[in-house]
């Protein structure tokens, strides 16, 4: 019995090896190349010494930013060209003109006359219409505009500088700073920001007597730093010193946005992750979907999701290591959601109560643009008045127009279903689309003219932009 058992134990691994060789010879063993080179998980135990890693990344920073700068210059006209007489809520001029560069010898009219297949086969889809990579796509993570870094450091002494990269887009393409704050409950007050960036240092003095105790506590939590993937206490952070973390209002400044960027946490591998343009929190009370692609159903879901997952690239293992902040759903999440729902759209004096233009206040061009919006342009099929959203998701199938291609670490393929963002107050929140790829409203009109195939004339495009500026 013992001898037979030994013989059996010896034969089992031999039999397994022979079986595996047969399977391989038949070509039915699945390849492991992808599993060997990619993983859904970030390394938990970092082998490299922090000082060495920081020195290496600092040394590489200039080349990383130069590569992104070359890409932006290839795709866009980045000049500072403010529109005359058109500003955001607190007075910053908006940028005008189409900034996406066309392929050599191409015009927008000629391009719009081609089929999607012809554009695809001739490789003439404008590069500025392709997904925009993160400033360093292979690394990713939260990146803040320099003016926000400076302000938070001045107020709190908290430094949001990353030693490995900087923000990439010029300031004149970003929302005004600080943005105005309008409250759904106190429209009589107008802008309640007092021209300040709201932080943990001043939220109480600004809103005590305006908000109720629950809302004040919600504001405190929105302004409280919590650990995040790049800003935390561990050796794989991207700040020089151990860090308290980031706040909700570091991206959604004053309940709006400063166009801080990041990568979505719900796609793998890294090269397929979409870049993010931080959306405004204005108008949260009328929205029914949250996240550009996640389709979270309530602002409470989104608030909780951000803290538990999005702050850590969607990796709960890393979140545990770096200090995930577990919010209480019944109190903290509720308080944060309630105050977010108070952030209102900016005033739109030319719109009536149905969200349409008042003929006595609008120009002829704006009225013509409204007609284009609701008819030939087919904009209203997704962006319905009065808030100019249908609270759904839509797939534009942009992959019809180009071949998959790798750009600065980003694999450009189709975008998939994207949330319909409200267009109310749209001039206050450049750049546009979910990943910042469109710098102006004119770029946005050209993009949708091509993707929707509506063939607008030059005058119709101008009128449509004039209407969008009224929303």
List keywords for this structure.
34% helix; single chain; two-stranded antiparallel sheet; 471 residues; disordered N terminus; 15 helices; mainly alpha
Structure description:
A hairpin with a 5-residue loop joins β1 and β2 (93-95). This protein has 15 helices and 8 strands. α13 crosses α15 (458-468). The longest helix is centred in the N-terminal third of the chain and has 26 residues, at 50-75. The chain has a two-stranded antiparallel sheet with strand order 1-2. It has helices at 2-26, 33-37, 50-75, 108-112, 116-122, 146-156, 203-207, 213-222, 248-251, 299-308, 316-322, 329-340, 364-374, 441-452, 458-468; strands at 82-87, 93-95, 261-263, 275-277, 393-395, 405-407, 410-412, 417-419. It has one domain (50-468). By secondary structure, it is mainly α. It is globular, with a radius of gyration of 25 Å. Mean pLDDT is 92; it is low at 1-36.
């Amino acid at each position: 019995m013992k001898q037979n058992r030994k013989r059996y134990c010896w034969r089992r691994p031999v039999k397994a090896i022979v079986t595996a060789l047969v399977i391989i010879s038949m070509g039915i063993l699945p390849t492991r190349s992808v599993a060997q080179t990619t993983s859904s998980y970030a390394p938990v135990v970092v082998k490299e010494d922090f000082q060495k890693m920081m020195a290496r990344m600092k040394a590489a920073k200039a080349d990383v930013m130069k590569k992104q700068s070359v890409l932006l210059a290839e795709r866009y006209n980045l000049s500072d060209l403010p529109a005359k007489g058109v500003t955001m809520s607190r007075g910053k001029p908006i940028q005008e003109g189409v900034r996406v560069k066309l392929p050599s010898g191409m015009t927008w009219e000629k391009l719009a006359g081609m089929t999607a297949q012809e554009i695809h086969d001739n490789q003439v889809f404008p590069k500025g219409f392709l997904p925009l990579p993160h400033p360093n796509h292979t690394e990713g993570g939260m990146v803040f505009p320099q003016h926000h870094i400076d302000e938070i450091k001045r107020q709190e002494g908290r430094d949001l500088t990353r030693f490995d990269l900087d923000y990439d887009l010029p300031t004149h393409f970003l929302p005004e700073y600080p943005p105005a704050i309008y409250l759904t409950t106190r429209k009589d007050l107008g802008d309640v920001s007092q021209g300040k960036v709201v932080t943990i240092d001043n939220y109480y003095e600004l809103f005590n007597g305006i908000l109720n105790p629950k809302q004040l506590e919600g504001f405190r939590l929105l302004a409280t730093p919590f650990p995040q993937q790049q800003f935390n206490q561990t050796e794989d952070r991207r700040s020089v010193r151990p860090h308290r973390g980031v706040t909700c209002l570091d991206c959604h400044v004053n309940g709006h946005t400063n166009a801080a960027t990041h990568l979505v946490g719900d796609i793998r591998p890294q090269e397929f992750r979409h870049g993010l343009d931080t959306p405004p929190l204005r108008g949260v009370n009328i929205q029914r979907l949250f996240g550009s692609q996640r389709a979270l159903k309530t602002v409470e879901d989104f608030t909780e999701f951000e803290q538990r997952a999005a702050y850590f690239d969607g990796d709960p293992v890393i979140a545990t290591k770096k200090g995930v902040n577990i919010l209480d759903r019944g109190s903290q999440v509720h308080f944060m959601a309630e105050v977010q729902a108070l952030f209102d759209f900016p005033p739109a004096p030319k719109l009536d109560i149905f969200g349409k233009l008042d003929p006595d206040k609008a120009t002829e061009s704006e009225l013509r643009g409204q007609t284009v919006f609701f008819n030939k342009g087919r904009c209203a099929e997704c962006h319905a008045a009065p808030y100019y959203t249908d609270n759904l998701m839509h797939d534009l199938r942009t992959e019809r127009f180009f071949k998959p291609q790798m750009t600065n670490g980003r694999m450009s393929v189709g975008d998939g279903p994207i949330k319909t963002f409200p267009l109310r107050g749209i001039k206050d929140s450049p750049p546009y689309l979910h990943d910042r790829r469109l710098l102006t409203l004119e770029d946005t009109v050209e993009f949708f003219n091509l993707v929707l195939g509506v063939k607008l004339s030059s005058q119709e495009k101008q009128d449509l932009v004039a209407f969008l500026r009224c929303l």
